[in-house]
């Protein structure tokens, strides 16, 4: 029995637990890459940072993502008599990508990431820190998101079975999470510098 077959069976029997474990591991992999590729040479590996990424991916993002992709799969447009099945599938795919990229990404996924990670870092002033990170990073992250995800999600929603969509997202997310982890962590010094200048003024 292949690993794919075993994994697919686990997804069908225990979809939530399987997605939580998989997503946590892949979020952690993204942070590992970010630390290895982009951290300063003299900086020690930050294990709690990777654990935070695993916790966020496994405990918060996976259950939400699992529900979200199943909900999107039920989102369809009325089938016109003049449409073939293939055309109807294509229109449904474009609708799902539009809702995902114009609703979920900017309003839920990106704010939730910066907010949750700030709380997991045990910030002494989480409200102000979250506000600062969103002001600094929300729009650049969203613009980068739109360079990557619309094209991928079009293929994902059109070609991949619904139970495997979160996994396919998570595989691409290794690189995406590497980017998010870099933005969140390796630019903290810039945010602190800006905050110090504001205090001095």
TrEMBL record:
InterPro entries: Mpv17_PMP22. It is found in: Membrane. It is a multi-pass membrane protein. Pfam families: Mpv17_PMP22. Keywords: Membrane, Transmembrane, Transmembrane helix. Its main location: membrane. One of its GO terms (cellular component) is mitochondrion. The keyword Transmembrane applies. Belongs to the peroxisomal membrane protein PXMP2/4 family. PANTHER family: PEROXISOMAL MEMBRANE PROTEIN 2, PXMP2 MPV17, PROTEIN MPV17. This is Protein SYM1. The lineage of its organism: Eukaryota, Fungi, Dikarya, Ascomycota, Saccharomycotina.
